[in-house]
Amino acid sequence: MDHGKPIPEPLDATGLIQLRQRFSEIAARRVPESAVDDVVQDALGIVLAKGGTQPDLRWSFAVLRNVIGNFYQKRRHHDSLEAVEVADDRPDALAALTTDERHRTIRTAVDELRLERPDCAAWLWSLAQGTKAGELAARAQLDRDPFYRKIYRCRQQLAAILHRMGVTA
User: Fold this and answer.
1) Is there a smaller number of Cβ atoms within 10 Å at the N or the C end of the chain?
2) What is the overall mean pLDDT for the chain?
3) 28 pLDDT higher than 70
């Protein structure tokens, strides 16, 4: 009795070798050379865990894309932890300023940011006051991910202004 579903093809070694080769080519363009084998192995492990049938290619490449994304997410997390450890070993330039100087410096930097990007200044001020980023994204009628990218760029811009003012972390 045929219900219209195709019968899955069994997994063949040639297809697996070709998939591994293609995964390696793609991963070599997107991750450091030292990580290519690990990324490919992780992706193939997920694809093979699906079962003993030939995997859908679109799904297989989506798996690879996600594994590469996970690699960079872990790397960013690791790098940020190292940055915190290094920062703990040196005095914070902003903390070294007196409270009045600190407020004046931050106020001046935010005023300069407001001239360049009024939306950034307003968003960062709202975040500093405790407004949740999701609420701000909704107010700005932006999806969550693009909004977070905008906030990141706003923070980078404010950091650049502070750096120009001689405040370095």
Assistant:
1) N
2) 78
3) yes
Q: CB within 8 A of 109, min separation 6: which ones?
A: 158, 161, 162, 165, 167
Please list the helix, strand and coil fractions of the chain in percent, rounded to the nearest 5, in that order: 75, 0, 25
What's 33's DSSP letter? G
- DSSP code for 35: G
Strand partners, 10: 53
pTM above 0.70, yes or no: no
Task: Using only the alpha carbons of the chain, give its radius of gyration.
Answer: 24
Name residue 163's amino acid: H
Helix or strand (DSSP H, E) at 32: none
* CA-to-CA dists, residue 90 to 50, 84, 87, 93, angstroms: 49, 10, 6, 9
Evaluate whether 10 touches 54 at the Cβ level (below 8 Å): yes
Q: How far is CA 71 from the centre of its chain?
A: 10
- Cα end-to-end distance, the chain, whole Å: 70
